[in-house]
Amino acid sequence: MVASAAGQLRVHPVCSPRSTLSQSTAILLTLVAYKVVLIAIGVAASRKTSDASDFFLGGRRLGAGVAALSASASSSSAWTLLGVSGAAYAWGVASAWIVVACVGGFALNWFVLAPRLRRHSAEEGSLTVTEILAGPVGQPWARAIRVVASTIVLVSLLTYVASQFQGAGKTFAETFSMSMESAVLLGAGIVVLYTMLGGFWAVSITDTLQGVMMAIAAVALPIGALAQVGGLSGLADGLAAVDVAGYDSGVRGLGGASAVGFVVGLLGIGLGYPGQPHVATRFMALRDEQAVITGRRIAMGWALVMYIGMITVGLCARVLLPELADKEVAFISTTRAVFPPVVAGVMIAAVLSAVMSTADSQLLVAASAVVHDLAPRTEASRGAMVWRSRAVVLLLSVLAVGAALWGSKEIFSRVLFAWSAMGNAFGPLLLVLVVLGPVRPAMRMASIVVGFALSVGAYWHPDLSGTAWERVFPFVVALLIAWRGSVRKR
Predict the structure, then answer these.
(1) Rounded to the nearest 5°, which phi and psi values hold at 43?
(2) Do the domain assignments include residue 192?
(3) Can you tell me whether residue 178 is helix, strand or coil?
């Protein structure tokens, strides 16, 4: 029981042996069914994967619904479900700035980047974002840019994938009597299997399924949680009752320059969207202009539902469960508190599978960086590219599992580091290339290196990490460099 200004709140019991058995059974059955579906998708997609274009871009035949949902899901997942709801739990209503930042980032991607990048990549025949950033083979600096960009992709995406594996481990640990090690290994094994089998087609279809499951959770759980706290008025009263040090003021109780810095730093998350290779590849794979328009509508609606829903969950958890030791289990704990055991079990299992399947997009892009962007290109290598890509997916997964088990334990900060690093390195140059046209090779390299270096430097500085100095300043500087290097400015 939790008391608030809204009155006594009823929380479903989850601790009795019978409840635990019912929930565990529901989770197990849902999990098995979902994993069988994922593997079946991988097997089916493997029949459509005959060359590198199929493995990395699905032959550029992606429809609007699959592109929109898979791009949305692969840019969110563990960070959105566990990290954003956890931030709302910790910060109160100040976390609403995340909604503005992320929905703004979706708009930047779908209105500015997507239509131009689709045309640009098709005209040049590019299969990866790195290939677009480096320019034609043989151009000055092209090889050096490929090496630098691919290294950034590998470092950032391995951090990202490890965070997804860790998100699944937290969910398992909260739900089953299962160690973190076993949970991470189980989930990673399934992801690796269907990604190796079907490549881009398998990843896109499974991420679409993931996007649907996430949207269902983002609607059902906030409604259930709001009902428990007494609606919006009960939530407002409850937040006022548990407010600590002004965290529910909208700026975490900060004032003056600190408040401005907090808001700008969060809004800077939106600037990272154009520079995410695992998202940009979906735009490159769209089949035509109409798919861009339809996909834009779907993606924007999904983003609004998802981020508003997760903020609502975190705020309700702040009232319902004020004593959580780990803020990033707010989503899971609220699910178990709000719904009966069987319903909660089904939702947790579905979301767990969704969290795990996000890693597939990052693994595929990281593999393309090694096999397509770094390896020497010969006729023999092109023929073996699909099999070499599968081997690289396996190797990278092993490294990500190790990082998940022995690295930092906070999902929110690790994902935002990888997000900002890639966003500041690639986003400014990519936007200038598709909007203004060619950029001189030396300025391409400078934009990438400066954006990445400033972002990493700020991340490692305790006073600058997580602020506008990490997320906004590097982006602006890199954008100015790329703009100055543009061959024709319009």
Answers:
(1) -65, -45
(2) yes
(3) coil
Signed CA dihedral, 445, 372, 46, 35: sign only: negative
Backbone angles phi, psi at 30, to 5 degrees: -65, -40
The domain containing residue 273 runs over which residues? 2-484
Cβ atoms of 52 and 382 closer than 8 Å: yes
* Exposure class string for 132-142: b at 16+ Cβ within 10 A, else e: bbbbeeeeebb
Residues 6+ apart with CB under 8 A from 271: 105, 108, 423, 424, 427, 471, 472, 475
Task: Place 4 in a pLDDT band, splitting at 50, 70 and 90.
Answer: very low
Contact 23, 341 (CB under 8 A): yes
Give me the CATH number covering residue 408: 1.20.1730.10
| 55 vs 73: CA distance, rounded Å | 19
Q: Is residue 489 domain-resident?
A: no
- The span from the CA of 182 to the CA of 312, in Å, is 31
DSSP 83-123: IIHHHHHHHGGGGHHHHHHHHHHHHIIIIIIHHHHHHHHHH
Residue 2 clears pLDDT 60, i.e. is over it: no
In this structure, is residue 490 part of a structural domain?
Answer: no
What is the average pLDDT value for the chain, to the nearest integer?
77
Structural tokens at position 272: 């990272």
Is 265 within the bounds of a domain? yes
* Count of domains for the chain: 1
Residue with tokens 């032959």: 59
Q: What is the pLDDT of residues 137-177, one digit of tens each?
A: 778 888 899 889 988 988 887 887 787 777 777 666 666 66
Record the pTM.
0.80
**Whether pLDDT at 178 is above 90:** no
CB 451 within 8 A of CB 474: yes
